[in-house]
């Protein structure tokens, strides 16, 4: 059955604003839950700006984690020269190498893609 309800415009606007606020609160709750479980992390603005300015994502995430090229290479099981060449753009690195580096940095493979 097709029922219709008429309400004043002011009430309609209030209900619409409340619905939009509810969506925002739910997004906030999901973000907080992701942070609490470790599924998501906050990245300092200085590191985000470096990424936005086109700096090598591997270098930015390596610095964020406080690792040297040698420490990252050892953790990922790759050569330090390979890390340096990928960071400087001289080499792209194989998918297997990039995956090992991403896993060692605690990021996704997409996070290292430029």
UniProtKB/TrEMBL annotation:
Start and end of every HTH cro/C1-type domain? 58-112
Any one of the GO CC terms:
cytosol
Q: GO molecular function of the protein, one example?
A: DNA binding
Q: Which UniProt keywords apply?
A: DNA-binding
Please identify the protein, giving its name as recorded: XRE family transcriptional regulator
Q: Which Gene3D superfamilies match?
A: lambda repressor-like DNA-binding domains
Instruction: Give a single Pfam family match.
Output: HTH_3
The record, for CDD domains, names: HTH_XRE
Q: Which PROSITE patterns match?
A: HTH_CROC1
């Amino acid at each position: 059955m097709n029922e219709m309800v008429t309400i004043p415009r002011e009430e309609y606007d209030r209900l619409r604003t409340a619905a939009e606020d509810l969506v925002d609160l739910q997004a906030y709750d999901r973000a907080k839950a992701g942070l609490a479980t470790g599924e998501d992390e906050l990245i300092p603005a200085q590191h985000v700006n470096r990424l936005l300015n086109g700096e090598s994502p591997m270098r930015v995430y390596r610095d964020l984690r406080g690792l040297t090229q040698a420490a990252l290479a050892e953790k990922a099981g790759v050569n330090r020269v390979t890390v340096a060449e990928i960071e400087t753009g001289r080499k792209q690195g194989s998918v297997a190498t990039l995956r090992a580096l991403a896993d060692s940095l605690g990021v996704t493979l997409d996070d290292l893609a430029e």
